[in-house]
């Protein structure tokens, strides 16, 4: 497995999430956002920076970074789905739409990093390769 073929698109997806999150903060600044919007937007932007950094570590073979990316890429879309379905979450419709796009991008990461070839490239310690 060529690790660049895995981590280049993953990095691009996380950078797209970062750009979208910063744009959402820009929208909140222009039209006014509640504290919920600001906290969520800032948290997603910060997490995106962290995930881009983890992508670099995973590309260099660091299993712990890979495991974190796998966990986040599965858990985040589930959390976003709950936000989208909650009738009174405090998020305006424009932010729910933004989070829906983010959820789709992160779910795409999950599809990439959970493929068998990728999992096999990061075996647990002590396992035969």
Written overview of the protein:
It is built from five helices and no strands. The chain has 129 residues and is mostly helical. Helix 1 packs antiparallel against helix 4 and helix 2 packs antiparallel against helix 3. The model has no long low-confidence stretch (mean pLDDT 92). The longest helix has 29 residues.
Can you give keywords for this protein?
129 residues, mainly alpha, 81% helix, elongated
Helix content: over 70%
- Strand fraction band? under 5%
C-alpha Rg (nearest Å): 16 Å
Shape: elongated
How does the helix and strand content classify structurally?
Answer: mainly alpha
The low-confidence parts are none
The mean pLDDT is: 92
H-E string: HHHHH
User: Total number of helical segments?
Assistant: 5
Largest sheet: none
N- and C-termini, Cα separation: 13 Å
Q: How many DSSP-defined strands?
A: 0
Short description:
With 129 residues, the protein is mainly α. The chain has 5 helices and no strands.
Helices and strands, with pairings:
Elements: H1 3-31, H2 35-59, H3 63-85, H4 93-113, H5 116-121
Helix pairs in contact: 1-2, 1-4, 2-3, 3-4
